[in-house]
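Cross-posting from the modeling subforum.

Setting up a comparison between two proteins and wanted a second pair of eyes on the formatting. Protein 1 (sequence, then structure tokens):
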Amino acid sequence: MFKSFLFVIVLSTTLMASIQAQNTIGDRKGYTPQMGNLVDMLEDLKNRVTSQVESLDQAGTDFLLDEDANRIGAMIYHLAATEKYYQLYTFEGRSFTKEEEAQWMPPLQLGEPARNEFQGRPISFYLDIWEQVRTETLEYLSQQEDEWLDKRPKNARMNNHWAWFHVMEHQANHMGQIALVKKRIPH
């Protein structure tokens, strides 16, 4: 009985992942081969996160699992802020300006300030910010050759490929966190 139950769980999880994922990584028009692969992976993750949250109402967007948690809207803003940071770091060789810090550090750091500030806005507010950042990322990536992935940002131990792998890893981690929080939203 347990083996049958386990099989059903594994099968349904695999099917859901297949339905939500694009199932191929490959060339993209307007990008070099490796940039196209990177874009495919970035877009797949973003699409899967978006599909989890795009239908949330205000209560779901602002739901707080406990006093130390972050709201789903804030986590989406956090993903955009992280991507923005790595854009500036890898493409422009810099960190945030003072003006950019005012916008991006609260969602980047999350915690109590973000819990207080990032609420009362529809999920589309956060998704639109992430979409704007992603549009910039795609433009930057379309201007790079594959060799750029091996280069290191100024004063960095990591190369650009690892930096953008980390952006995806970060998004995947929060995708799981968002799924957990979403399951706990009272209906």
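Protein 2 (same layout):
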Amino acid sequence: MSWKCESCEAFNDEIHTRCWSCKKPRFQSPEEFHTQALKEPILCSTTPEVPGREISSPLGIVFGEAILGANILRDLLAGVRDIVGGRSGTYEHKLREGRKVAMQDMLEEASSLGADAVVGIDLDYETVGQTMLMICVSGTAVKLKP
């Protein structure tokens, strides 16, 4: 099954949450992604188990990645903030955006395996070059006993 991008009208595979052509997100928020794209919400845990539930079988390791670029003006303003102090709202926003994209990618992969939950979630941040930020998330997709 496919979906049609509202922005550029390109057809995309059901599993993708971003248009392959214009990169516009299919869903406006992670909550909308969970309710529309997934039949049942996938439980997420940073621990190796889901509290109160028993794992019936592991399905494999799942990943999500996001690489975001920051522009020169943003870098310059963040540098000024470093000198005078204070928080960089633009970089904080980019971190949140990247984390959401990476988590959505991981949940898509888990959903395609038929997972009920993803356990042992690990989130890593790295810089690539001077202006790129890479966010990687991984976990183990599992089926839970009823």
